[in-house]
Amino acid sequence: MKRTIVTLVGKDMVGIIARVCTYFADNGINILDIAQTTVQEYINMMMIVDTSTYTGDFATLSAELDAVGRELGCVIKAQQEEIFNMMHRI
After folding, report:
1. 15-41 pLDDT, tens per residue?
2. Could you say which of 10, 29, 40, 45 would form a disulfide bridge with 36 (CB–CB 3.0 to 4.6 Å)?
3. Is the pTM of this model over 0.85?
C-alpha cells in the first residue's frame, strides 16, 4: 500500500467534498481515512489515501490536486506518507 496524506483548507461550500472524492474515484485512489472540521464558514480536512493503483507520478497528483483546490477556492496539498512522518518526528 502506498499512502499519501492530503489536506484541504478553505471556505466551506456545497460540493467541496464531493469534488475531491470524485477526483480520487476517477483516478483509482482509495480514501482510507478522513477527518473534517468546520469552524463557522471554514473547512479543514485531512485524508489518508491509498495511491497504489494511481497510474501517474506524485508530481502529477500534487499538481492536479492543486488545480482542484484552485477551482474550489481552497488549498489542497499532498505529501507522501514517508516524508510526512519524517517531518513530524520528534
Report:
1. 999 999 999 999 999 999 999 999 999
2. 45
3. yes
